[in-house]
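From: lab user (bench 3)
To: helpdesk
Subject: output format question, protein + zinc ion

Hello, I'm new to running complex predictions and I'm not sure whether the block I got back is the full result or only part of it. Here's what I submitted:
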Amino acid sequence: MSHDGIRITRKEDESEEARPLPRISITPEKVRVLLTEGKGMEIDWVDGHRSAWSFAWLRDACPCATCVEERKQDGRKSGQPKAKPAAVLPMYTPPAKPASAHAVGRYAIQFNWQDGHSGGIYSWEYLRRSCQCPECTFDDEAPTGAPN
Ligand SMILES: [Zn+2]
Ligand SMILES: [Zn+2]
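Helpdesk reply: Thanks, we reran it on our side. This is the complete output you should expect:
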């Protein structure tokens, strides 16, 4: 009588396959900061997706501790502008624009805003999660800040 009838084989890479792959890339292929045009920033991601943000949106989405705290107190989402007081004389406020922008290591970008603010470090991950395209914002009620 033979005992070699039962054999259990195991797929070696089964656990590897079960691990969920990240669905989106947070590595930019190309970053364009449209400083001269004053429009905003565009990023082409390595997965082929393209994101765009206006400077106004980026300024109101500043990820520094002060701005995050301020938005939390106002109940504003990232990129949502401050409520303007209704009864005062309309005053022209120029749209936010950075004087310069530079890369922070390999993971983020920093803007030196013309209003003197520069504390926010915009990581690629934060930006990708804040993509303003219809595909990424379909379930988000935040106002779109993408340049047209
Ligand atoms: Zn800030
Ligand atoms: Zn998107």
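A quick orientation on your result: The helical segments are 14-18, 55-60, 65-74, 124-129, 134-137. Let us know if anything else is unclear.
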